């Protein structure tokens, strides 16, 4: 597990050189963004140290973002799980992958579901401590990103990836394992939407944290062809 700092308030935890989750410091302790792979709970707890983890906030229900959620819930008293309303059926065991009216599908990528029930849903415009919730559909329905308004860090989940070039995940090279997406056009629209926010750096689910805002995201939009 590699640990590095993100902006002024975040810690990036990277497993196997490719799978990230983030601890974001708030007045009452940490918010953990995503649950990484199965078996990461000890390392997440060690990284938090004496600071309590108060809540897990999910960008989306893919397997590499929810793997240690159940184990953490069992270990940490009072821990809450927060996710979008649209993620709830996809988080069930077995997952309900049916589409809602107007959605393009199918829903792709590993979605094993988890035993933990969502304690609170979060929606566009909500504020959780310092994090502003932004609906960012495309990679999967119900995907959300979180902007730390203190330092402009955008926790973007899998809307973008930065293993190699910074790209919208639906437009990664053909060999890239995270190409799984539900709606590429929607992911591109989401990137354009994110241009309306004061982003200073982007922290993705996979790859390094990149400094930059508008130009960085514009580069990903420009590379998203076809
Ligand atoms: Zn994903």
UniProtKB/TrEMBL annotation:
Residue ranges occupied by any Metallo-beta-lactamase domain in the UniProt entry: 18-206
Domain of life: Bacteria
Signal peptide limits: none
CDD domains xrefs: yflN-like_MBL-fold
Name recorded for this polypeptide: Beta-lactamase domain protein
Organism for this UniProt entry: Granulicella tundricola (strain ATCC BAA-1859 / DSM 23138 / MP5ACTX9)
